[in-house]
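Field reference: "sequence" (input) and "structure" (output). Example, YggT family protein:
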Amino acid sequence: MLTFVYAVSWLCQIYALILLLRIVIEMTQSFSRNWRPQRWFSIAAEPIFVVTDPPVKLLRRIIPPLRLGGVALDLSVLVLFFILQFLPQLLYLFVR
């Protein structure tokens, strides 16, 4: 059973890295409005968005954006990141 927890922990870490790549791409797009990715980059980034879109969209439906004046801060990616960090620890506690 401990092997299962290690496997889930490993998968959560990889998914967190993919989520971090998504954050970097989205921040680049939001800060550089004129940036248009080249075709090869769009093809390479597509799997990142395909893999991370379902849980992010689900959390966006549950958690509304935080309004700070004229800016809306999306907390769904941050919540998903915290879930990915705490899930292996919770599983390890249940296995012990």
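The chain has a mean pLDDT of 92.
The beta strands are 66-68, 71-73.
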